[in-house]
# Entry
Amino acid sequence: TTFLFNKDDYIGEVRVRPGAEDHVSHMFSGKAMRVSDFSPPSDRCTPLLIMHSISSGGVLFTMDLPQQQQQPDGLTFLHSSCLHEAKTAMVQMEAGMELHLVAMTKRSDGDEEFSQLQHTQQPCFWGFLTGQGSYASCLTMLNLRCLGLVFDLDETLIVANTMRSFEDRMDALTRKMRLETDPERAAALAGELKRYQEDHSILKQYMENDCVLDNGKIIKAQTEMVPSSSDATPALERPIIRLDSRNIILTRINPLVRFTSVLVRIRPAWEELRSYLTAKGRKRFEVFICTLAEKDYALEMWRLLDPDARLIPSIEVEERVVCVKAGGLKSLANVFRKGQCHPRLSMVIDDRSNVWTEVDQPRVHVVPPFVPYYAPQAEVGSLLPVLCIAKNISSTVRGNFFKEFDEVLSQQLGSVVFDTDTSTLPKPLDVSSYLV
# Structure
């Protein structure tokens, strides 16, 4: 038996029966369970459908009145308001977790149809556990038919070089050329070296003079204001040169230190993919970044890719750009550590899958590395650039996910009642099932 409170108001004694995966209900046995708040109401998906999609461990426990107990008014009101407003009663837990009580209905004895009367007469709930904030975020996403999309940066969306990295690559290529005996391979290496040298020259001009010579014209750097991404970081002014015809942007990570100047090449068809993600003002995906790069660099690369903050609002960019320490593995659990999405509801676009945890690797759409110096025509000459293929795959994944979500899962859970054997519930959908 557990004593249920709505904040400080005692609303009744309830019977809690643990499920197979339950590791929570024993904490309330003979003690108080305190509802601290309610989730936002849902206008499209039922709370059960959302919880089934994102909860840790499925149905943890079932909760109803002990037999022969008179029905308390407070409990009846709690149940009916949750049921009719499509919201959950929330119990705050330790370690950044939330317990959600989902109002359920009971089937009439011997009747397959639901008794409307019993909706109010029989308060009963299923208990689910989620990360803090996860329910509210995923409710919004699922109602809008939106999934999570996590991008890598380097060699997936961009290739960036400093003076030092250019020089290291040119030295390595020069050494390779000295040893190469095959004329065809030697010519390919020479072509690659020439492309590095050209961009190195552009970066050198920018670093030294804040301007570059492009097709006989002097292009001067324009100051761009970089808004503060957090209270701890001040706003910056960076000297930027955009050579759109070449897909090149020149920037300086620390505006006061010229050696932090970077030449960035943006992958062809990025703008097409970006436009798709927010077409007609409707978000199809919530975007996140996960990279092995340093934070300041990653934030600036993303600002260049999304200059008008269409994909990630400026106030959220600090949280949504996640940097993993060298040697560490990327994980969606870490990307969504603040409950902004759920790994099962998200996919990744990266040039490598082995940098992700094993559980997340099936959710990665692996793109060929972006290698503009080695193979400059690989994407320009292609009928369908890599990021267009990624766009098409993202669209197909999203379409198939929500087709099953709406036409199958929603129908299956629509017939579930309090007394349904929870072990017979369908498996939650996972984006990885549609990434083939």
User: Anything to note?
Assistant: The chain has twelve helices and 20 strands. Residues 145-157+267-436 form a domain with the Rossmann fold fold (CATH 3.40.50.1000). Residues 386-414 form the longest helix (29 residues).
